[in-house]
Amino acid sequence: MATRTSTISTALQFAEDVRAGLTRAGQKELPSKYLYDEVGSALFEVITLLPEYCLTRADTRLLQKHAEEIVRRLPSNLHVAELGSGSGKKTRYILEAVSRIQPTFYYPIEISPAALAACEKELGQIDMVSIVGYEQPYLDGLRSVAGRLRKEDHLLVLFLGSTIGNFDREAAEEFLRDVRRILRFGDALLLGTDLEKSVETQLLAYDDPTGVTAAFNLNLLARINRELDADFVLEQFEHIARFNPEARSVEMRLRSRQEQTVTIPRAEMTVSFVAGETIWTESSHKYSAKEISQIAKETGFFCKAQWIDQEWPFAENLFVAK
Length: 322
Ligand SMILES: C[S@@+](CC[C@H](N)C(=O)[O-])C[C@H]1O[C@@H](n2cnc3c(N)ncnc32)[C@H](O)[C@@H]1O
Prior knowledge:
Blueprint: E1 2-6, H1 11-23, E2 28-29, H2 38-47, H3 55-72, E3 78-83, H4 91-99, E4 104-109, H5 113-123, E5 129-135, H6 138-148, E6 154-159, H7 169-182, E7 188-194, H8 199-205, H9 212-228, E8 237-244, E9 249-256, E10 260-264, E11 269-273, E12 278-285, H10 291-298, E13 301-308, E14 314-321
Parallel strand pairs: 1-5, 2-12, 3-4, 3-6, 4-5, 6-7
Antiparallel strand pairs: 7-14, 8-9, 9-12, 10-11, 13-14
Bound molecules: S-adenosylmethionine.
S-adenosylmethionine binds at residues 33, 36, 41, 44, 48, 56, 84-86, 109-112, 115, 137-138, 160-161, 163.
């Protein structure tokens, strides 16, 4: 069964965020959450299949191998929420493991309506699992979920795919604290984190030779054209990925190939670029396995268990709210 609750972020908010990001002094920026419209969500699914982007396969292997154990370590009357579920393919292993013990509810929380619909289709037929989707930002969705739980229920929150890496380190900890405030003692968070590896390997994961990641990134400008009537000429921008050693993150940017001015009527603005100027669109911070338990401690959790993939350094971390 799948039902849906939605508070759609408006075109007005998108216009405001585009305006703020492209008029800020210094580095121009666009929030990475806007990469995921219908086209972006479809392109992201293709990225997960690329030989260079091994994160999803590592995450999947860990869930497939350890889902039973993860669920066994948690209390009964378990409900499952997922922040930024995407298509939810990997989540099947967790839901099937829970449903072998008890009936459950699954709450995917997504701002991409296309991803949410794909997720509901992907996971809608698992016996003993009822789906209630929330088309909302992470914390709003999680508050909605928490508000419907009974006293005796417990929540397992999934935040997979190393999406936490899209926050800078300080914001990631603040976000985890916010998540903790919504949870109750004993609730759990399963956090997927991509681990540090050679710079060359990390960069390839965000700059594949097929050009799918470039299309994913450039689609953000195409989305601004579609939704805000802008006149970005996509050929005049190129995708770049670079490693920032201080931040320990891979940064995706869009670089203007020439001096140019773009009009964005629905954001009531024009924006000029000098040749070589970039727009920062996404960061993917990498972690060391050891720092994770400290992060748990500092954000109101303890790290009860950690599993690391042997083929591609990636950790699944089971945090429990203390
Ligand atoms: C990197 S993808 C990961 C998808 C999936 N969890 C996985 O591991 O493959 C991030 C997902 O989070 C969603 N998302 C991004 N920002 C969000 C926000 N602020 N609130 C809710 N969902 C968000 C995107 O639409 C996208 O589907």
